[in-house]
Amino acid sequence: MIPGDTSRVRPSRYARIAGALYMIVILGGTFAEVLVRSRLVVPGNVAATAHNLLLHALLYRSGLAVEVFYCACNVPLILLLYHLLKVVNKNVAVMMAVFALIADAVESASLLSAIAPLAMSQDAHALSGFTAEQLNAAAYLSAQLFEQGFAVSLVFFGFSCLTMAYLIVHSKFLPRIIGILLAIEGMGYLTNSFTLLLAPALEARIFPYFTATAIAEISFSLWLLVMGVDDQRWQRQADAGIVCAQVNVQ
Q: Are 171 and 88 in contact (CB under 8 A)?
């Protein structure tokens, strides 16, 4: 349980826990999106997608299970990052956490669409009134609806990255370069998601240019996991914030 009294917090310990959770989220997202969904869901090809989902049902289920797990891991991760960064600016840290929680909730809700193809393939008796072509089309549409929901979740996550970037740049216990990289990644998420929503054909061409920005989250998670944070600098910034708050009250 994270203490409410900042004087008792061991930030380096929480930073390493956050780093481990962040790596789980990154690896889980890579497995679910790159190694599973992008291999099985063929854009524009209903028959090939339906064939892949039927042939590799266990792999598809594994991807969904991993995604549900890392969405759950996001909750304690967001809480830990909030407690680490609130000493910089509490209001901005609250915005960061709210944006991140909304992104996680939207992605989690969108998983219902991704699960639908499995339900259609299982309950054949209940769906006997539909032709195989109609079921395949419905399964493909469900998978595409998840991608749209995921794009919406990344809008909120993009704003979370921007607010996190601000906090890291203004912190005295984390490298500024990580904050700058996160700001670039946040803008990349926003650009990619709004392009997918407004001009899907264009998104397919610009997406490869934004994949490299993932180095920001990888660098941040590794820094937290290996280096943690400077406890003394973190505590001094926390104490400075308390003093400023007391002065403002007076």
A: yes
Q: b/e map of 163-185 (b: 16 or more CB within 10 Å)? A: bbbbbbbebebbeeebbebbbbb
What is the enclosing helix (H) or strand (E) of 223? helix 215-226
**Of 210, 194, 184, 185, nearest to 155 (Cα)?**
194
Query: What whole-number distance in Å separates Cα of residue 110 and Cα of residue 153?
Result: 9
Assess contact for 68 and 76: CB atoms under 8 A.
Answer: no
Residue 153's CB is within 10 A of a number of other CB atoms, namely 22
Give the model confidence (pLDDT) of 4-36 as tens digits.
Answer: 444 465 889 999 999 999 999 999 999 998 899
Q: Is 143 helix (H, G, I), strand (E, B) or coil?
A: helix
Kindly list the distances between the CA atom of residue 105 and the CA atoms of 25, 70, 121, 232, in Å, as whole numbers in the listed order.
15, 12, 26, 35
Chain centroid to CA 162: how far?
A: 13
Supply the pTM of this predicted model: 0.85
Are the CB atoms for 210 and 193 separated by under 8 Å? no
Q: What is the largest CA-CA distance in the chain?
A: 73
For tokens 């803008």, the residue is: 187
Residues 6+ positions from 184 with CB-CB distance below 8 Å: 213, 216
